[in-house]
Design brief:
Blueprint: E1 2-10, H1 15-30, E2 35-40, E3 48-55, H2 58-74, E4 80-89, H3 107-111
Antiparallel strand pairs: 1-3, 1-4, 2-3
């Protein structure tokens, strides 16, 4: 498996709009071929957002990376600026007990609870 990671600076003036639009963005990403699990964060103190989206295959993660770069160039999401994006291999993973596992994430079934 591979992950597409992105680091964004966020304009706090667009905070409400961006957070309200996040469910639609996540729904679209979930429909992407090979999608496994994704996480979107926002550090409210620094207005930096980190994104990690896991895919079954490298080419799927690279396609998402290209999509993210294109959307940044087109300014598709006002109030965001891509600082960097990359694709990398998942080499380990860990999760909490079964009650805390992320819904729908078969990542743990592929890697086990302690990685590989």
């Amino acid at each position: 498996m591979h992950a597409m990671t992105g680091l964004f600076t966020m304009d706090p003036a667009h905070k409400t709009q961006l957070i309200e639009g996040l469910p639609n963005l996540i729904a679209n990403v979930r429909e992407t071929p090979g999608y496994v699990v994704g996480f979107w964060t926002w550090d409210h103190a620094t207005n930096v957002s980190s994104v990690l989206v896991v895919f079954e295959r490298e080419e799927q993660a690279r396609a998402m990376e290209a999509f993210v770069r294109t959307n940044d160039e087109k300014r598709t999401f006002p109030g965001t600026h891509l600082e960097r994006a990359s694709t990398s291999e998942i080499v380990g993973a860990a999760s909490g007990n079964a009650a805390k596992k992320t819904d729908g994430a078969d990542l743990w079934a592929h890697l086990g609870s302690s990685g590989h």
